[in-house]
């Protein structure tokens, strides 16, 4: 797919089913995710792939334990189930600021690099023919998920890229944004 076509027609998809990328395709996806701009070469990102029945069961348990631990109630428990079943694959993107680096860069810059990595995962999976959506919700702040994913104090789960194949065909058209409010030419 032409790069500009991909960038100008990308859409999030919320109804996702099998198939999801295989191991070889994931290698490509993470090669793309790790080519993002990265001031100082600090590699401030980590990725956790949740795929397959064992991983999905672990994810579900962590989501449900979050609801119990944070006393969030039955509505959130239902949401936890939906997140667990959202897609055949979830990729957690964790911003891992290298604060102890010899020449650290501001944390906000490192967060943005992780955000770029998340977007690269979206674009790369799209380019491979899959669909996805980036979600966050209260799950990103979950102490259970943070611990399960080995987050340090400064680390932030910045999203879960839910990946699979669109259940229904959908039109891919350019958004044709009215650019006037967003762009100034000096
Ligand atoms: C950091 C971030 C967090 C998001 N969190 C959620 C979320 O928790 N739930 C949700 O439905 N959409 C969430 N979205 C929005 C969707 O990923 C998507 O971008 C939005 O629905 C617009 O669709 P589009 O990407 O096709 O334009 C989030 C987007 C970003 C960038």
UniProtKB/TrEMBL annotation:
Spell out the InterPro entries in the cross-references: NAD(P)H_nitroreductase, Nitroreductase, Nitroreductase-like, YdjA-like
Return the Pfam families for the record.
Nitroreductase (PF00881)
Q: Which GO terms describe its molecular function?
A: oxidoreductase activity
Q: Which residues form the Nitroreductase domain?
A: 8-164
Q: Which UniProt keywords apply?
A: Flavoprotein, FMN, NAD, NADP, Oxidoreductase
Which cofactor is recorded for it? FMN
NADP keyword on record:
yes
Task: Give the E.C. number(s).
Answer: 1.-.-.-
Residues at which FMN binds: 10-12, 39, 134-136
Task: Paste the cofactor note.
Answer: Binds 1 FMN per subunit.
CDD domains in the cross-refs: YdjA-like (cd02135)
Entry keyword annotation includes Magnesium: no
Q: What class of enzyme is it?
A: oxidoreductase
Q: Which PANTHER family match?
A: NAD(P)H NITROREDUCTASE YDJA-RELATED (PTHR43821)
Family, according to the entry, reads as follows: Belongs to the nitroreductase family.
Name of the protein this chain belongs to: Putative NAD(P)H nitroreductase
Task: Please name the source species.
Answer: Kingella potus
Primary gene name: ydjA
């Amino acid at each position: 797919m032409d790069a500009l076509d991909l960038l100008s027609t990308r859409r999030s998809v919320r109804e996702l089913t099998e198939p999801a990328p295989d191991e070889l395709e994931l290698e490509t996806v993470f090669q793309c995710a790790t080519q993002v701009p990265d001031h100082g070469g600090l590699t401030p990102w980590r990725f956790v792939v949740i795929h397959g029945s064992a991983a999905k069961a672990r994810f579900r348990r962590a989501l449900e334990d979050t609801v119990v631990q944070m006393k969030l109630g039955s509505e959130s428990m239902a949401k936890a189930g939906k997140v667990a079943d959202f897609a055949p694959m979830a990729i957690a993107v964790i911003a891992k600021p290298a604060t102890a680096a010899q020449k650290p860069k501001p944390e906000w810059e490192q967060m943005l690099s992780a955000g770029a990595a998340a977007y690269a995962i979206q674009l790369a999976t799209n380019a491979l023919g899959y669909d996805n959506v980036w979600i966050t919700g209260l799950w990103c702040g979950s102490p259970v998920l943070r611990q399960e994913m080995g987050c340090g104090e400064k680390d932030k789960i910045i999203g879960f890229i839910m990946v699979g194949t669109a259940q229904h065909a959908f039109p891919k058209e350019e958004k044709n944004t009215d650019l006037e409010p967003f762009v100034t030419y000096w």
